[in-house]
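Quick check before the chapter quiz. The format below is the same one you will see on the exam, so make sure you can read both the input and the output lines.
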Amino acid sequence: MTSSCGKFRFNDIDFGTVADTGIPRYLDLGQCNDSNGGIHIALAISAALNTPVNDLPISIVLSWMEQKAVLILLSLFSIGIKDIYLGPKPPQFVTDDIFTFLQENFNLHLTGDAQEDMKNLLIKKVA
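Here is the expected output.
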């Protein structure tokens, strides 16, 4: 699933479907304003599988294109979502002390090298 500005990198790629289901491997949930739907889907999957949402194979990478991303980030923190990647740089209000707090309490990461970030995102979810 994806939403917001970053989705345009994937719109022309055919990821196929989940075997024997017809469910697309890639679901576009729309713009940033629609990110709430992704949160509800993740919570519903978490409940259906009786698995904490942070244990699901979901990766969240927020790009700071607009202020709406700040609200999305705060919404995710409010329901306890962890392991979010933020980039290409944090907003100006995220001082070193604030980042340290968010890193310690929510395992927040800054994006860096794209290949290394992808490796870390995929390893975490497969391990």
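If your answer matched, good. The domain at 5-126 is CATH 3.40.50.2030 (Rossmann fold).
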